[in-house]
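User: Just a sanity check before I run the rest of the batch. Below are the structure tokens for the first item. I only need the designed sequence back.
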């Protein structure tokens, strides 16, 4: 076990040298942006930034020295894509706009019929009749139905 640990340590050092050595050209990677599209029924702001570090345990509680900042951070931009929210973003992508409308129809029919499966069936029918995600829904009706059931249950 110790020998494997030593080999892993050496490999990590090699990787560190590849990425950060001044004698080796640094590798350029694309600028990262992370997004989550929120389509839930609960109220949610149009935009919110979530930070992974907000979920970290307090190092003091683990008997570790407290650092001024974590050595790892990830920020994710959450965008509310429900109907009527973030229209400047949604309107730039027809499929996203149509998806938002499909989910709004599922919720509308769920309220009307008080029966989720009937609501999904009616929303699928409405959207196909009105050319909303029609091509996708014709090919993937079962998957769309399953997703809507999980998302709205």
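Assistant: Here's the designed sequence for the first item:
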């Amino acid at each position: 076990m110790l020998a494997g640990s030593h080999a892993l340590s050496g490999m990590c050092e090699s990787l560190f040298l590849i990425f950060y050595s001044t004698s080796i050209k640094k590798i350029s990677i694309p600028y990262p942006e992370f997004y989550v599209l929120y389509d839930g029924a609960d109220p949610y702001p149009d935009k919110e930034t979530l930070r992974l570090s907000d979920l970290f345990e307090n190092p003091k509680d683990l008997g570790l020295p407290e650092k001024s900042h974590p050595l790892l951070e990830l920020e994710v931009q959450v965008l509310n894509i429900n109907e009527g929210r973030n229209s400047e973003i949604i309107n730039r992508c027809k499929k996203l706009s149509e998806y938002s409308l499909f989910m709004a129809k599922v919720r509308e029919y769920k309220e009307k019929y008080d029966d989720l499966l009937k609501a999904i069936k009616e929303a699928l029918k409405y959207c196909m009749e009105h050319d909303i995600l029609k091509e996708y829904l014709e090919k993937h009706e079962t998957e769309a139905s399953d997703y809507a059931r999980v998302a709205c249950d």
